[in-house]
Amino acid sequence: MEQQIVKVKNKKGVRVIPGFGLSMGVTLAMLGCFILIPLASIFISASKMSFQEFTEVVTSRQVMSGYLVSFSCAFLAALINGVFGLILAWVLVRYEFPGKRIMDGMIELPFALPTAVAGISLTFLYSDQGWIGAAFDKIGISIAYTRIGITIAMVFVGIPFVVRSVQPVLEKLDRQYEEAAMMLGAGRTRTFFKVILPELFPALLAGFGLAFARGIGEYGSVVFIAGNIPFKTQIAPLLIMSKLEQYKYSDATAIALALLLVSFLLMLFINSLQIYMQKFSKA
Amino acid sequence: MAKKKQRTYQQDMVGDSINSIQKVVKPQEEGGSRAVKYLLIGLSVLFLFVMLALPLAVVAANAWREGWEAYLEAVLDEYTIKALWLTILATGTAVLVNTVFGVFAAFLLSKFYFRGRQALAALIDIPFSISPVIAGLVFILTFGTMGWMGDFLDQYDIKIVFAVPGVILATIFVTFPFVFRELFPVLNAQGKDEEEAAALMGAGGWTIFWRITFPHIKWALLYGVILCSARAMGEFGAVSVISGHLRGKTNTLPLHVEILYNEFQTAAAFAVSSVLVALAVLILIVKSLVEWKKK
Q: Which of A158, B52, B176, B222 is least surrounded by Cβ atoms within 10 Å, i.e. has the fewest?
């Protein structure tokens, strides 16, 4: 009886649980005040520019090279994170060994460590006098103040995203299928690539996307190791920063808007690819 | 009799063949997988050591480089203490605001179905995919002298940009979805049957929340608060844009580290960093404890 009443009420649009109006009000008010209204300013401010001015700023040589550095380094870093994130998640889920709990806790370190602190310690580590940098300096490779350094900093900030995306999926993965594949004669490599990887792929892709987005936007940990050499190691967020320091607000807005649009398009692409893959693997 | 015997014979055949396959296959697999296991564990340890442990070691090594006295001097410096207070203030406010928002938004999106639910969830996630520098920029474009609210604020002599409120707002923006992100999956998985039953039996909104919803989310809430405070404490990009780097006024600890580093006071920069590292490690330990307790 009661259930019937509930259903009738729901059909009429009356909600059983109280608090809808209050929750909706608080959520929308806070979201509006803290996120949406400030974010709208970027569009308001951009609308004051003509399209020509906008393209002029965005396609200038310095800005284009900034985008190129940001996107290429973030992409490479996300790829490296994809590989190591998968290995780390696999090791943490499938194997038992001493120190595993500490290792699991350490994954979130880049997340908890202030980015500026990470930035200066990475710079120290990889500079020509640093512990690792000195070794590479001997064979003629300098890491700090080059794109290699930027990529390493982006690997540092991105690694938790991949591990934490893949780990829960791997934990839930039914081992039956692997066992079945092995019983049917597939080797370990084949089982991994044909049975396990397709199941993990959507999660891996999600982690890749998050790490990629974080790498593009990252400022604190990258800016120190980048060294800000124009046309070589200037990242896009840094360009926004330097335009702001010169009080060129409209230039900064244009660069930010283009960066936002490209990042959103990329995320949209990765999300739809992920949805496609999920449907594909379930079918 | 004969039929029965035959069947058992066949069953034994099948059983034997499976056993023999397992016997043949297993030892080989074990040997191979053990090598792979140690290789993968070795790779992971190496990666974590180089990428995560060494940077921490660098902070520790350089912080003590000039001895205890220099370390204490840097940490107990007037500006460091002021920066620490501002960091605590900004983190505390951000955690408070995000907790209130996270609880209401997670309750709304998991207990009620309405049009635009998905879109709302996507909007809440925006700060995750935005560069912190852009997060700082939007506040300058809103409240700065050039911004559309600039004149209004000027009239009443309210300062937000290059002042403490701006630092707090930027911190809130960057950490906005954290608590919501932790609460939403938990509440969504729990469903709404319990709340509906309570409502039908006449419980009011607050009673339902405190007696039914809250017990489900208390660990997730604590977890979200921990993550949120870690991120808020370390925020650099957004705060750096909006603070204006006024020493002793709008400098947070990470910004103070940057200033010291740029002034080539390396040991002092790492000494202040070590305070932040200690806080980060503490947060990670508390987080692991909460996770362990949750299980």
A: B222
Superfamily of domain A50-282: MetI-like (1.10.3720.10)
Among B residues 263-282, those touching chain A with beta carbons less than 8 Å apart: 266, 269-270, 273, 276-277, 280-281
Same domain, B26 and B48: yes
Note which residues in 90-149 of chain B have CB less than 8 A from chain A: 97, 100-101, 104-105, 107-108, 111-112, 114, 120, 123-124, 126-134, 137-142, 144, 146-148
The ipTM estimated for the assembled molecules is 0.83
Choose the closest CB to A114 out of B111, B254, B284.
Answer: B254
Kindly compute the dihedral angle of the four CA atoms of residues A118, A123, A124, A127, in this order, to the nearest 10 degrees: 160
Q: Which of A99, A89, A101, A104 is nearest to A171 (CA)?
A: A89
Q: What is the pLDDT of residue B247?
A: 75
- Let me know if residue B9 belongs to a domain: no
**CATH classification of the domain holding B92:** 1.10.3720.10
pLDDT less than 70: residues of chain A: 1-14, 280-283
Contacts of A216 in chain B (CB under 8 A): 131
For residues B247 and B259, is the Cβ–Cβ distance under 8 A?
yes
Residues 6+ apart with CB under 8 A from B171: B90, B91, B93, B94, B232, B235, B238, B239
**How many other C-beta atoms can be found within 10 angstroms of the C-beta atom of residue B289?**
12
Residue A232, min C-alpha distance to chain B (Å)? 20
φ/ψ of residue A113, rounded to 5 = -75, 130
Determine the Cα–Cα distance for residues A268 and B179; give it in Å rounded to an integer: 24
- Helices within chain A (DSSP H only): 2-12, 20-31, 37-47, 51-58, 61-94, 100-106, 109-112, 115-126, 131-138, 147-172, 175-183, 188-191, 197-217, 220-226, 236-245, 249-282
Question: How many Å apart are CA A78 and CA B263, to the nearest integer?
Answer: 33
The parts of chain B modelled with pLDDT lower than 50 are 1-12, 23-29
Q: Is residue B24 situated within a structural domain? A: yes
Nearest CA-CA partner of A252 in B63, B134, B276, B132? B134
**A2: Cβ–Cβ under 8 A, 6 or more apart, which residues?**
B200
Place of tokens 């398009």: A265
CB–CB of B227 and A260 under 8 A?
no
Q: What percent of chain B has pLDDT over 90?
A: 32
**Hey, are the CB atoms on B43 and A244 less than 8 Å from each other?**
no
Residue B176 counted as domain residue? yes
**Chain A contact present for B55, CB below 8 A:** yes
Nearest to B237 among A97, A220, A267 (CB): A220
Handedness of CA B189, B194, B197, B200 (dihedral sign): negative
How far, CA to CA in Å, does A155 sit from each of A137, A163, A211, A212?
A: 21, 12, 8, 9
